[in-house]
Specification:
Distance between the termini: 46 Å
Mean pLDDT: 84
Number of helices: 12
Number of strands: 6
Strand content: 5-15%
Length: 316
Amino acid sequence: MHTQVASLSSRWQLVFGDRRNETLDWLLAQYQAPHRAYHNVEHLLHMFSLLDARAAKFARDEAVNLAIWFHDAVYVPQARDNEGRSIEAMREHVRGLGVSRGAVQRATRTIQHTCARPAHEHDPRIATVLDLDYAILASDADRYLRYMAEIRQECPWWLRVLYPFGRRAFVDATCARNKIFFTRAFEADEVRAKQNLNAERFINFRPKNAHHALAAVAIRDAAVVRCDGRSLQCEAFALNFIDEVWAYKVDDVITDSIRLRFRMQNNATFEIAEDALGASVLFQELGSALTNAKPFHEWYLDVVFPAFDACLTRVF
């Protein structure tokens, strides 16, 4: 972390010199907040690294740098006004930086577009920052799996039941675009980004007609359904081999963990914890995937309440 902060501090001074170091301190504190698993200093460094590698002509551009620094300056996962509050913070802090009014206006439009991505963007500076922000979608398989986990981790526990719906809306909308990236520097990433998004669909949002198997990604606790980190192919357990399913709760001190225990016809057992990638979707689809299984809304609340009890409940 110290190395990352030092690199970002050097980047700030490269563009803004020693002007308003208190603004730099505030930004670094924001991006190091404990709740940020993805929208953190690593994300900033990734964007700046790609800026140097693919759009070096904008490396010291004030508008581009302002937009990168402030685009996630305020980040509350459940909030809908993060971009607006980030823009307000930028306008407040920028007063002592001596940047031009035009740079602030362009940075403002850029941050607005990170929330409502346009179909086309002809301003090369804005287009570059938007592509940098989405570059993670074209990362290698190992990094993309980690990105999926980090994004979900940022969702507050009380909203995790709803998380799959919001995430699926983003994935579907992004896949439906004619082009994800705007600039030539990122044209080669288009195919890889859509491959990753479609893999995420398979992992977390299995089609409704694919009830022949259960799919999940084992990234925590015991490995149950394995997803290869390079090919993103999953090993699935056929539905007709499942004999019983029980739900229960484990007290993890800070939070409770809801788990499903499966017993197969050969008496082998395995578990899926709710913090495993794909588990939240699987939990909700189980009622329709297994004949006579309890619907999610029936068994989940029986397990959640009362707190601190295991609340063993038969699902199937």
